[in-house]
Amino acid sequence: MLSTLNVSQTGLNAAKIAVENVSNNIANENTPGYKKRVVQISELEQMDARFAGRGVNVDGTFRITSQYVYDKLISENSKLNYYDKLSNMLGNVESVFKETTDSGFTADLNRYYQSVENLRSNPNSQIYKTAVQNQGKILVESLQNLYTSIEKQQEGEKKELYSNVEGVNSILKEIGLLNERIQKFGENNDLLDKRDQLELELSGYVDVSVSRDSGYYELKIGGETAISGNTNVRTLEVKEEETLQKDKFTLVDSSTNPSVVYDALKYNEDFTPKTIDANDVVSYKLNNEFEVSVTMGELISMDWDGDGSVTTEAVTTSNLTRALVYKINSNPDMKDLVTAYNGDYSIDANGNKITKNSQDNFLRIESKDGGIGSEFDGRISIEKRGNVDSSMVDTRETIYKNDIESSDSESKVYVSIYDKEVSIKSGIIKAQTENLSSESSNNKYQVYLDKLDAFAQTFADISDKYIETGTDKYTYGEAASDASMGVINSIGLFSGSNIKTLKFNENLVNDLTQDKLDYLASIQWKDDLSFDGKGQNIASTEKTSLTEYFRDLKVNISSDKENTQFLNTTQKNVKMSIESSYNLSTKVDKDEEMLNLIKFQSAYTANAKIVTVIDEMLQTLLGLKR
Fold first, then answer.
1. d(CA 364, CA 339)
2. 272 has a pLDDT exceeding 70
3. Average pLDDT score over residue span 133-153
4. Angle CA(291)–CA(295)–CA(297) in degrees, nearest 5?
């Protein structure tokens, strides 16, 4: 009988603990990261085979979780945050390009050409000239505002990136401290819940993989270990790298001899020598704004051999490259932007760049500073003139940089662990780094900025010079004119090769004659413009007008936003599906807990009733003894 009383007493205790656990679950139903607890009970071991049982034992309180589903959840959460951030970024860009009938760049472009048409009808009207001056300035400002708005968004994202990396490092350190406490006090349910919550929060920033086998905790970000040995924490760091733009004016004919590199100033693509001779003019043009020229036979006093001695020599095909290098590096407008070299260079112990100047090599032009903000546009034009009469132009030719051997300026932003780049695959930081690195193929910001630069370059080029080839027929732009025959007419109304260098030279409006106005007016109707950074070529496969080009840019931005929003919505549904399954098994279900409460309350009542019955039996027995 006393054994039965002990069984009831253990039953009462187990039921009490179970009721307390149910109350705790209900109380923490809305606690972030909380996972419901269950009480595990087992039968007490029998001491003797003659007894039916000794009662019940409470083994402990355990949390309900599914590690596989949880790991899948943090993976999908990381992807969702990537699309969320990207969608937000593209939405901000889309808002910059919003236009109405009367406002926006398209309206400004139309008003500019309308002012040109008005001045064309009366070239002597000061009112119309003032209108062109005003609209030209507005046009440049409108383009530059679009550009700077995107740049400001990039700058904002960069600042946020640094803040996000600090947030990641803070979470990593918290997890490390939790692991120390887990090692010290054991796997406490509250500590495990807190760690899971931090892992889920971390997955919003970066892709995370966690190993928890045999008490050994290891967390990786982008495949690189961030936490090892439970408590060894390695923090992330933001890195920025900027490289120089390097233009090489050489050509490699791989179909003939891949090992042969020849100077484009001296040889044709079939390796036949160019016949550059007396009076021919070779010019280097920078950003459609600055220019230096070397005339064959011109006397130049300079250090030709790099030995420190200055001599005077006539320019020939044997020293043409060195003459151009000297002219470029001596030009006050160019020397702060680029540096020219006679071929490749080596670097001495003091960091000086050394070239071999005993002979001409190819022409190498480098940006003065690194990064995408220091990019430039350069080309070489050759004007062959008569040997006897230098005013006679025989042919013109334009040489562009060798795309294979040249390299663009780049601004790279990435995160690293111990100076090793981390290849983040998803999360907010992935969306930010890929849209802050100019070399990233997924950088939407850079795509839009490049298209705006291409628009500005083409617009400035075709508004600068032209050749009239017939009635209302023209060779459009300075770049195309430099490679075409005919009389080059200079307008100079706009200059520059990108948005930052784009300028409107309002004083030249007063020099606009009827023929120049006729040409400028024709540009707005031209629908076969090429925006590839080279001269206009009617054979180009991608042809469009200024208005259509800008309209296509806006359509691309909206399309990118819609596609990203679709992916975002799809990913959100995937994450919600997994989260729903996970919550179904781990979150507190109030209805289920109420049933458990009734069950354990009934068990408590039943065990109490047994205690009461045994107590009555004992009282009866004691009464008989008296």
1. 8
2. no
3. 96
4. 160
Give pLDDT tens digits for 358-399. 888 889 999 999 999 899 999 999 999 888 888 888 888 888
Question: Cβ distance 337 to 288 under 8 Å?
Answer: no
User: What is the rounded distance in angstroms from the CA atom of residue 412 to the CA atom of residue 425?
Assistant: 17
Nearest to 150 by CA among 90, 83, 82, 240: 90
Of 240, 623, 600, nearest in space to 432 by CA:
240
Task: Check pLDDT > 80 for residue 29.
Answer: yes
Q: Quote the pTM value.
A: 0.86
Dihedral over Cα of 337, 343, 344, 345: its sign:
negative
| Angle, helices 189-203/126-185, rounded to nearest 10 degrees | 160
Percentage, residues of the chain above pLDDT 90: 60
Q: How far apart are the first and last CA of the chain?
A: 20
Contact 367, 208 (CB under 8 A): no
The 8-class DSSP code of residue 542 comes to S
Residue 435: burial class (beta carbons within 10 Å; 0-12, 13-18, 19+): buried
Name the token pair of 197.
């919550």
Lowest-confidence pick of 199-213, 526-540, 563-577: 526-540
With a CB cutoff of 8 Å and minimum separation 6, the contacts of 197 are 32, 33
Closest listed residue to residue 77, CA positions, set 383, 405, 428: 428
User: Comparing C-alpha atoms, which of 145, 163, 219 is closest to residue 432?
Assistant: 163
Q: Is the pLDDT of residue 52 over 80?
A: no
Nearest CA-CA partner of 398 in 264, 263, 494: 264
Structure tokens, 152:
């400001």
pLDDT tens column, 467-499: 999 988 999 999 999 989 999 999 999 999 999
Cα–Cα distance for residue pair 62/565, rounded to 1 Å: 41
Core vs surface per residue 453-478: b (16+ CB within 10 A) or e: bbbbbbbbbbbbbbbbeeeeebbbbb
Phi, psi of 229 (to 5 degrees): 55, 35
Other C-beta atoms closer than 10 Å to the C-beta of 410 total 19
DSSP SS3 for 121: helix
